Amino acid sequence: MAYKKVAIAGATGNLGPSIVNELVNQGFEVTVLTSSGKTSGLPSAIKVIKVDFSSQESLVSALKGQEAFISAIPKHEEQPALIDAAIAAGVQRFVPSEFGSNIVGNEKVRALPVFAGKVKTQQYLREKQDQISYTIITTGLFLDWGIGLGWLVNLKGKTQINDNGDSAHSFTLLSDIGKAVAGILNHPEETKNRGVYVQTAALSQNQALKIAQKV
């Protein structure tokens, strides 16, 4: 059965709004946990709870009655505390802030120091999987966010081609990540205690540049 009562932390960051918007559009009951109480740009249909993220008591109180908890907080050192609070509150599914490179099925990626925090979170979830289920989402580079920063295609000036520009890379739209989160919550058994992969397109820089020129 689908998880319909969902809490999310980090809802106002680069990724959070896309997740919140998709969940609201699909009829989920969305509760946003925030330390500031500010939810600028988010749908009015959400419930907002101001929490102290350094206090487990505050987190547990906010998570009571939730079926799933999505973390879009980029600080990996904060993930274990969120997981513990979710367990204490009786939450059934946790989706950590692991969005990005494949640390589930690629040992070479797991060994890179830059992903040490994500690997620790994954290991912690495996240790706790008898108390809470989890899903780890692997994505490509954030396509629309990256274009906005000009590191794939510079829409405001000249584009710098890296290498020869023909190497294809995995890209994912923020909106597709939101759809993936909704899909996980709609299919909890199929996505239980495993990784899922979300790719919008595999593009080279030259291909992306040609598309941008046509537009």
From TrEMBL:
The lineage's top-level taxon is Eukaryota
Q: Which InterPro entries match?
A: NAD(P)-bd_dom_sf, NmrA-like, NmrA/Isoflavone_reductase-like, PCBER-like
Q: Does the keyword Transport apply?
A: no
Which intervals hold domain NmrA-like?
A: 4-214
UniProtKB keywords:
NADP, Oxidoreductase
A GO molecular function assigned to this protein is: oxidoreductase activity
Q: What protein is this chain from?
A: NAD(P)-binding protein
